[in-house]
Design brief:
single chain; alpha+beta; 4 strands; about 25% strand
Length: about 80
Amino acid sequence: MSTGTETESEPAKHRAARAGTAAAPLPTAPCSVVWSKGHAYVLEGFRARWVGVDDRGRPQALSGAELQRRGWSRTRSTN
């Protein structure tokens, strides 16, 4: 029996989240890890910022908006 309203399936939601597309929101759980430009970034829950290192190993903090602009994924890419 159908309720008349279709929702996106769970596997489709997970695929979209893994893809790191602009449509997929960043994770919100503290200590979540995402990848951007070959570097890992961890969400600091108490400050709501993403912390990682730049190409020279210096600490770098990004806002969620900055990370969205740079592009991100849940897995490390080879690019």
